[in-house]
Design brief:
Elements: H1 3-23, H2 25-28, H3 35-55, H4 62-127, H5 130-143, H6 151-163, E1 167-170, E2 177-180, H7 182-192, H8 198-207, E3 369-370, H9 375-381, H10 387-393, E4 394-398, E5 406-410
Antiparallel strand pairs: 1-2, 3-5, 4-5
């Protein structure tokens, strides 16, 4: 093989191995993948190996032995220099990248602070208009026997609320921060206490946004918040007993540790909302969307979850005894150590749901769908309470509509 082809093979091998080495950050030297640095380092190492090999060249041709040895030492010296500069270049490039990254992070932090500062200044100027608008609303309510407010006033409220942008709020009891708008929360609380006509209040809720409103610790018991936009609102530690959130947008809302007893969330959007540790006894979630929601440790005894979607959600240690889960979609959800004693799971979707150490005593499973025939045997291995009762009462049959899926049927009907 000629020297030309040896050189080509060396370069190609350096490119291939160097790119792989760069992807894996060159044995930990780089903080991030860098293909160029990996190629340079590999090329240098390859040249070093080639030079070392030259030192071992057979000296059968004694006439050229001294020349070969001399050239080999020259190759070795040049390769060591090249390797040194390659390593130094890699370290230098890595340091420069890190400095540039730190600088970018610092600039982003400054921009966020400036943005929050501008938002705060804008909010302060808008907040000054709120008492004036509330005074106009009060005058309209006093002059109208039906307690209605004008469309113009509602539009003005909507414009003001839109300018009350959420900003980063830090909490004294933790190092965490959230994007929230305390002003929108205060505006909503003041509007609720005005006791306006229900039709006017409905028009107001549909037009005025309360996204990211900070309502922590608020008393909203028996309040009609149907159709309201409470996307990412903070409703933790709130009293929401018997409140109506029918068709409300509560996506990403924080509703932890709140009282939801007999509250209505029918057809509400609770996607990725956090209801953990809340008390939702006898609450209604009929047709609600709770995909990706956190419902761990929730107490929802006797609640109605029928026809709701709770896919890929977290329900670990939730208490749903006697709950109505007719046609509820639990696909992919974590039901580990959940209490479903006496619950109705007729036509429910349990495909890919985790039921490890769950309690299914006296549960109704007729028509419930699961992934495999080994569902009951897996339940036995995972210490599911009541699985023996399920096994004695129900059998699994193939789902005609979905291959490799199975449906529970009463053994008396099979």
């Amino acid at each position: 093989m000629t020297k030309k082809w040896i050189l080509v093979i060396l370069v190609l091998a350096s490119i291939l191995i160097g790119w792989v080495g760069g992807y894996f950050r060159v044995l930990g030297i780089l903080s991030e993948p860098d293909f160029i640095s990996g190629f340079l380092l590999c090329l240098s190492i390859g040249a070093l190996i080639y030079s070392l090999r030259k030192l071992g060249v057979s000296r059968e041709l004694k006439a050229r032995a001294e020349l070969v040895e001399k050239n080999s030492y020259i190759y070795l010296a040049l390769t060591i220099v090249l390797l040194f500069f390659a390593v130094v270049s890699i370290v230098w490039v890595n340091q420069q990248n890190q400095l540039l990254k730190d600088k970018i992070d610092s600039q982003e932090g400054i921009l966020l602070e400036l943005k929050d500062g501008l938002t705060s200044v804008t909010t302060q100027s808008v907040v000054a208009q709120i008492p004036l608008i509330l005074r106009v609303i009060q005058q309209e309510l006093e002059s109208d026997s039906l307690k209605r407010i004008s469309i113009n006033t509602i539009d003005r409220l909507a414009a003001v609320s839109e300018l009350l942008k959420p900003r980063r709020t830090f909490y004294l009891d933790s190092d965490s921060s959230k994007m929230s708008s305390p002003e929108r929360g205060q505006l909503l609380l003041q509007l609720i206490h005005l006791k306006m006509d229900s039709n006017s209040f409905m028009d107001l809720k549909r037009k005025v946004t309360f996204e990211a409103a900070d309502l922590e610790n608020a008393d909203l018991g028996e309040i009609d918040m149907s159709c309201a936009n409470l996307n990412k609102a903070i409703l933790s530690n709130c009293n929401l007993k018997k409140s109506n959130f029918h068709h409300a947008n509560l996506e990403g809302a924080d509703i932890r540790k709140s009282e939801l007893v007999e509250a209505c969330f029918n057809a509400a959007n609770l996607t990725r909302a956090d209801l953990s540790w809340s008390n939702a006894t006898s609450a209604s979630f009929v047709g609600a969307t709770m995909d990706g929601a956190r419902l761990d440790n929730i107490q929802a005894i006797g609640c109605d979850l029928s026809y709701s979607s709770i896919q890929w959600a977290e329900l670990k240690m939730a208490r749903l005894g006697m709950a109505n889960c007719h046609s509820t979609d639990f696909k992919g959800s974590n039901l580990g150590r959940i209490n479903l004693d006496g619950a109705v799971l007729v036509n429910a979707n349990l495909i890919r749901a985790n039921i490890k150490q769950a309690s299914l005593l006296t549960v109704q499973l007729d028509g419930a769908r699961v992934k495999g025939l080994d569902w009951i045997s897996m339940g036995i291995k995972e210490n599911v309470s009541g699985i023996s009762q399920v096994n004695s009462k129900y059998g699994l049959v193939s789902d005609a509509n979905s291959p490799n899926k199975f449906v529970f049927r009463l053994k008396s009907e099979i």
